[in-house]
């Protein structure tokens, strides 16, 4: 069974690509490089989708049709929405919804036209395995991988794992007003990003199990400035590599 591993930014998969490089090959399809090989005993296809819902959906469809993947995991960063979340926490989606989907009055707000649903469920086995891998990595490896001074600067005192709804949309959420609006309209959402719900819709339509994992680069109740390129390089990249490595190692070959 082939697993597709997808990210929107190169740093989130760079270390996994380096590990898989010996013996792997690259296929160029639709302006994307699909890296095909084996990783920790598993057949994998790793690809950079780029940013946004259309890019994520196109990449997911290619993984299913061209590479016959049977499961998909999306990894990346997100912004926190719910109170009580912190920089460095991990959110594993149980459902995903498009916060910018609005075909009203023809269809209820957030409902995807002609599908009759506003959210899509992730695969329980995949999300549980990712959550356990994340908990183990945070407890056993994260302190040695993320510099203590940086953790202190970002107030990453005790990062933890949350499972809940993630909202996606083709807009970067960067203001307190936008956060307040989303909290009011989607009170169950823990985090916001730009790709996950598109992956979810395509996987739902094709019957492909999937999971989405996000590292929080900022939190709605955290006013500290975050240098995003630095966070991506020095924090999020380690999270994606370490957690997915444990996830793969824990699965039966």
From TrEMBL:
MF terms in GO: adenosylhomocysteine nucleosidase activity; methylthioadenosine nucleosidase activity
Gene3D superfamilies for the chain: Nucleoside phosphorylase domain
Domain Nucleoside phosphorylase: start-end pairs: 2-248
GO cellular component, one term: cytosol
Enzyme class: hydrolase
Keywords from the named record: Amino-acid biosynthesis, Hydrolase, Methionine biosynthesis
GO BP, sorted A to Z: L-methionine salvage from methylthioadenosine; L-methionine salvage from S-adenosylmethionine; nucleoside catabolic process
EC number: 3.2.2.9
Pathway membership: Amino-acid biosynthesis; L-methionine biosynthesis via salvage pathway; S-methyl-5-thio-alpha-D-ribose 1-phosphate from S-methyl-5'-thioadenosine (hydrolase route): step 1/2
Highest taxon, organism lineage: Bacteria
Stated name of the protein: adenosylhomocysteine nucleosidase
